[in-house]
Prior knowledge:
This protein is of the alpha+beta class. The chain has a domain at 21-86. 18% of the residues lie in helices and 38% in strands. It is built from 2 helices and 6 strands, in the order ββααββββ. The protein has a 4-stranded antiparallel sheet with strand order 3-4-5-6. The protein has a two-stranded antiparallel sheet with strand order 1-2. A hairpin with a 4-residue loop joins β5 and β6. The radius of gyration is 15 Å and the shape is globular. The mean pLDDT is 81.
Amino acid sequence: MTRGDEVAIAGTNAQKIALIGRVDNVGEAKILAQFAGYGFGVTNKFRQTAKGYELTGRRGDCNEPSYFVHLTVALDGTVSEQSRGPSEGISLCKPDPR
């Protein structure tokens, strides 16, 4: 981020939330959820609520089981996992081409 001649990095979650400010759209909600370690595919669902956004994403990587999650991202940027379920065999890793 820049302010005048000053350049800084928003490294902590609190700094990232401060940079975005009030969550005004699903894109900002998804960015904050990604900062919190969640991923999204093309078909993931979302809906706006009076308190923010509800998102369906996933969590996990090549070294741990992956699972689907139902998240809420509040207007103040708080990300909360509401529930999780099995990923049904979906891998978050690309296969080794060898």
